[in-house]
Design brief:
The protein is α/β, with parallel strands linked by helices.
Length: 71
């Protein structure tokens, strides 16, 4: 399943991303900083999308093709 998670480096979001990735899902994480996310989530094969909930239009195209969204 392709899953998009907002807040991918937050406390709840990062734990959810790790669980989903380890369960074999294809995960895309919305993050404010790709550098921080790479340190935190590196090695999981997670796709990182840099953006902010204040500008949904800026990352909306990255939502295409996902089966589920966790916000």
């Amino acid at each position: 399943m392709r899953v998009f998670v907002t807040g991918g480096t937050g406390l709840l979001g990062s734990n959810l991303v790790q669980l989903l990735a380890r369960d074999g899902h294809s995960v895309t994480a919305l993050v404010r900083s790709k550098e921080r996310a790479a340190r935190q989530l590196g090695g999981l094969g997670v796709q990182l999308v840099e953006g902010d909930m204040g500008d949904v239009a800026g990352f909306a195209p990255a939502l295409a093709g996902h089966d589920l969204l966790y916000h």
